[in-house]
């Protein structure tokens, strides 16, 4: 719940979803590759949609 605070998504036991902690820190990755990339924009997740086929 804490890792998805501020993100609109289902947070009940019936949903299996990946939390941000499942990934490396993008800031850390970008910093380690600073000689290869130029940051031109920063995005923030605001919604998480889960598709479940019927």
Helix fraction, binned, reads: 10-25%
What's the pLDDT, averaged over the residues? 78
Q: Enumerate the spans where pLDDT stays under 50 for 5 or more consecutive residues.
A: none
Question: Mind describing the biggest β-sheet?
Answer: none
How would you summarize the topology of this molecule?
Blueprint: H1 26-32
Q: Short summary of the structure?
A:
This protein is mostly loops.
Structure description:
This protein is mostly loops. It has one helix and no strands. The chain has one helix at residues 26-32. The mean pLDDT is 78.
Keywords:
54 residues; little secondary structure; 0% strand; elongated
């Amino acid at each position: 719940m804490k890792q998805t605070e501020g993100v609109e998504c289902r947070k009940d036991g019936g949903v299996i979803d990946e939390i941000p902690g499942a990934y490396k820190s993008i800031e850390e990755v970008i910093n380690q590759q600073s000689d290869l990339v130029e940051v031109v924009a920063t995005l923030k997740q605001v919604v998480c949609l889960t598709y479940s086929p019927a």
